[in-house]
Amino acid sequence: MDTIILGIESSCDDTSAAVIRNGVLLSNVVSSQAVHEAYGGVVPELASRAHQQNIVPVVHEALKRAGVTKEELSAVAFTRGPGLMGSLLVGVSFAKGFARSLNIPMIDVNHLQAHVLAHFIKETEEDTNQPKFPFLCLLVSGGNSQIILVKAYNDMEVLGQTIDDAAGEAIDKCSKVMGLGYPGGPIIDKLARQGNPKAFTFSKPHIPDYNYSFSGLKTSFLYSLRDWLKEDPNFIEHHKNDLAASLEATIVDILMDKLRKVAKALKVNEIAVAGGVSANNGLRNSFHEHAAKYGWNIYIPKFSYTTDNAAMIAITGYYKYLDKDFCTIDKPAYSRVTI
Ligand code: KG4
């Protein structure tokens, strides 16, 4: 019998639903919320309201595109956390109610684990370019920067993580300081392609072990910019591309330095990247350079699976389903947790 999993994602500002049959993706519908653009960041209350409006049509569309009826579903998987509580509650409540009404198992998914398992989303049966266990995954998003040792689908160990801001958060905040739009990541990426990454130098952290820190870089960027603006009020306009390129290069260097150290210490050469910041072209290029120089087998997800999506929730749910790792209706959403 087919195993058909409906995945639901609502941890931040994307409402998403996806259907996976026997590990192969049938549909992935993502409704992004434009309402936050005017505020320069996600407004939690507006996000929950938009999720409430979107959740039924998005699930309906995902089932329709998959050509699957709700009665054919084997289980409903949903993001239980971490994320914005109000946003999570919409997806969690819907998923639980839907699973209960169909009398099928509900499967809770850790959003961070799902970002890592996005590498196992298969668009066709023949899709076999997947990391082999054990592999290292650099998880870089708006809220997290972690190096994870992935031993199996359900066995992950965080070896290092940020002690303050995440890489994406630092990019977004620096972009805000420059008066660019939201989210800053894609804008910085675009500008950086035309800039000189060596034009400016920003301070890099000296953090022990395999941990990261990005708050110092953010401050260094802000103070340097303030000084330069005193000399030239149009400094940002004149140097936009170089500022973006230098900022991006500093962040990529910080991320790759630690990843390289871990890979060397553990003698692992299966290396993956995941999370919203893995869409960044500078980071992707650096992965390719490392592959050529150090013999890494690298795994970079498709753009559509780097940011929040339900396909990664559904695939994580699929592997938990195979393990009969189900959730009970009393399990609440959680806003903070690591892997
Ligand atoms: O994983 P994600 O979609 O959301 C969570 O944090 O869960 O990641 C969003 C982050 C934002 O900080 C955004 O600016 C960043 O990913 N981002 C990028 C790019 N696209 C998205 N950062 C750099 N370059 C990009 N192309």
Automatic annotation (TrEMBL):
Locations listed in the record: Cytoplasm
Catalytic activity: L-threonylcarbamoyladenylate + adenosine(37) in tRNA = N(6)-L-threonylcarbamoyladenosine(37) in tRNA + AMP + H(+)
Boundaries of every Gcp-like domain copy: 25-314
Glycoprotein is among the record's keywords: no
Required cofactor names: Fe(2+)
Family that this chain belongs to: Belongs to the KAE1 / TsaD family.
Record function comment: Required for the formation of a threonylcarbamoyl group on adenosine at position 37 (t(6)A37) in tRNAs that read codons beginning with adenine. Is involved in the transfer of the threonylcarbamoyl moiety of threonylcarbamoyl-AMP (TC-AMP) to the N6 group of A37, together with TsaE and TsaB. TsaD likely plays a direct catalytic role in this reaction.
NCBIfam families: gcp_kae1 (TIGR00329), T6A_TsaD_YgjD (TIGR03723)
PANTHER family listed in its UniProt record: TRNA N6-ADENOSINE THREONYLCARBAMOYLTRANSFERASE, TRNA N6-ADENOSINE THREONYLCARBAMOYLTRANSFERASE, MITOCHONDRIAL
Protein name: tRNA N6-adenosine threonylcarbamoyltransferase
Organism of provenance: Phocaeicola massiliensis B84634 = Timone 84634 = DSM 17679 = JCM 13223
